[in-house]
Amino acid sequence: MATPVRPTEKAGSAPRSGREPGRWAGLAARLRPRATFARHALLALVALVVVVLLLELTGPFRNSQFATMSYYAIAAAGLTVLTGLNGQISLGHGALMAVGAYTAGLLLPAGIPLLVVLVIAAGVTAVVGVIVGAAASRLKGPYLAGATLAFAVAVPGLAIHFDEALGGEQGLAVPSPRAPEWFADAVYFLSANETSSAKYLAYVGWTVAIVAFLLLANLAASRIGRIWRAVRDDEVAAELAGIRLSPVRVLAFTVSAACAGLAGGVLGVVVRLAAPTGFTIVLSISLLTAVVLGGLGSLFGAVLGSALLVFLPPAVTNLGASAGLSDVQSAQLAPFVYGAVLILVILLAPGGVVGTVRARWHARTTAPAEAPEERTGRS
């Protein structure tokens, strides 16, 4: 018996098996660079264009919010490497950001260029990360979280103890650099807009963030990234394969700490202050929350989680004020809504926003086609 032909298929043509890629998808696949670094560099270039458009089309207040989002994104990306790729839980990244911020506050008044200061801040925090990571490399689960929590509680107290050098409870003032004339002229030539201080700091933060994301993306796609995933998925199998767990964990913690120090340096420049009250345990928990919301193991998820951290509380506060609530009630409504969003994401999207979307897209594109016998039997 001949197989019946569907109305959408021409007679004599072979039956379709599965979902065929569309014309545009095939064209995109042909145009996409084959080299991993080239693909990531192309994405970084696209991200830079998006950043320029957003900063030039928004006002000073939004520019300051984007500047804040930049250092959250850098720190969340480093935590994504540690927690999402290597499986280590850290509640001490706020303290690591404090190390970077205070380093920037100590070096910038000496006249050292901003880029050099940020690199030194990342390096100093990486050294701290080696020490903390080596001490915590034998711990896992709640024990590791408890050790990093103790670190997060202890570090801000050092600023109070060494108040002469670090400013004590008042904090250490961090000078904010001005936009160079060539940069302001280039921005005016491209967009006919003046370069405010908030806009320049947002450009600095997001340029640093894009470079950090480019390096992390290539590192995650390399052999080191595959080793991190192997340790995360099955420690016993990784050891049987010849992987030494302790150095791998220390390396992951060091890379994550360097990102936190870099984010702390950007934070100090944007906020113009490095104070103990800015690096409490709340900051560490917020970073971990951003990673969970965006999606563990996804750098783009770190960006989404950072956006929620920055834009959701003010939006909820404004909605509460427009609904007739007092200023205090509106301010208290923001953390409640944020917690509710976190619970909903955990219940409805355990893999985070990016992880859930990716899983559903994979399930949709790899759905098995109907067997010819089943189609014949129904007809």
TrEMBL record:
Subcellular compartments: Cell membrane
InterPro entries assigned: ABC_transp_permease (IPR001851), LivM-like (IPR043428)
One GO MF term: branched-chain amino acid transmembrane transporter activity
Keywords for this protein: Cell membrane, Membrane, Transmembrane, Transmembrane helix
Keyword Iron: no
UniProt GO cellular component terms: plasma membrane
Region described as Disordered: 1-22
Membrane protein topology class: Multi-pass membrane protein
Pfam family, one: BPD_transp_2
Membrane-spanning residues: 37-57, 69-91, 111-136, 143-162, 200-221, 250-275, 281-312, 333-354
Keyword Mitochondrion annotated: no
PANTHER family: HIGH-AFFINITY BRANCHED-CHAIN AMINO ACID TRANSPORT SYSTEM PERMEASE (PTHR30482), HIGH-AFFINITY BRANCHED-CHAIN AMINO ACID TRANSPORT SYSTEM PERMEASE PROTEIN LIVM (PTHR30482:SF20)
Name assigned to this protein: Branched-chain amino acid ABC transporter permease
